[in-house]
């Protein structure tokens, strides 16, 4: 007799991942499809939505064909917030504009702050306008591509586009909407019509649901394409980092999730509405939850860049070399702002810096410096989270960067905080699978994904990193003017 199972798929920045999971949480199969984003101009990061659907279909086919399991529900998540505009026939009008790694909307942010009031935006929406704000990117398309924008009728993100293709439903989850600043009222938990009508005229904004609610069921056409059973439910889905937090049980007040991926993301669950100009305040993926969140523009993207420069050695080899380098990377210090920086710097024109280079430095030193730079940025974000009123009681790590052990150990040493690692660290696709399972059973993440180990800081290393962290904090203001001048040259 075949098992009942759920399918979870996440559309990420550098890959799409899928899992087939039994209703007790056992991973039966997993698969990955790697892809690259498009960078048509400095500061612009896009992706063709056709790739999202093609990779979903491919993953679904691979994971279900020949499996001794009956898929009974589908879970989804995706990078976000993104802006995918379609016409009235749901034909995409242009590639999707991606989340905060895309920094094109600087002028629109300045204009909207002046027209609507920066403080009023933060009061109503929970966050200030930044490169993360989807609403500002809608405004960019309206300004820069007016003929195209005049044909726009609907707004999608990665997960909601898959929902549309699978079920025909036009919906978006509350959490994703709360990152569409300034279109969403975070206290009222609905679209804010006066600003939506002003910024997105003619666009029918999607009805809102919670991430784990059923958006609809798989249509006959989608069933033929994907191999999934006709009529099974599909969740509404959410942004990948929030699904990732659910995948490791980091969704209770006091929890902080660290997502080690192409970018580093931090999601702190709080009891009430908290705001800070250098963070994002959002509604949570689950009803009656709220979050303070932060995100770096690069983390794993920098280590991947270094790996490519080094001739693509294996990551185990690079980790071994970084281990040999030791704390402090033999006097190297890096700012990981290779694509600008999101929180808490909020500077799209920031740039990467490697300070202290000599002819004696090695690949291991550079790789170690990149890992340490991410850890310093995590500490910076944590300090601002707590300054904003956050109460961090537990840190849970997840994502591909947790493999190998060195990166998580460096982060614990730099921050002085232990990190929990769960048995399964597949990430957002597993969180989506959990939400799908909860449509048909009483699945819980503690039963699905128990604690595997706790990474604890080493006091001697922490003391050494305290001094280096001070130098890290000094390096950005000391180099920002030069970085901005160089960024201006790059953007010409």
UniProtKB/TrEMBL annotation:
Pfam families linked to this entry: FGGY_C, FGGY_N
Protein name: FGGY-family carbohydrate kinase
Residue intervals passing through the bilayer: none
Gene3D superfamilies: 3.30.420.40
Family membership noted in the UniProt record: Belongs to the FGGY kinase family.
Domain Carbohydrate kinase FGGY N-terminal residue range list: 6-245
Keywords: Carbohydrate metabolism, Kinase, Transferase, Xylose metabolism
Xref: PROSITE patterns: FGGY_KINASES_2 (PS00445)
Database matches in InterPro entries: ATPase_NBD, Carb_kinase_FGGY, Carb_kinase_FGGY_CS, FGGY_C, FGGY_Carb_Kinase, FGGY_N
The organism's place on the tree of life at top rank: Bacteria
GO MF entries: kinase activity
Ranges for domain Carbohydrate kinase FGGY C-terminal: 257-437
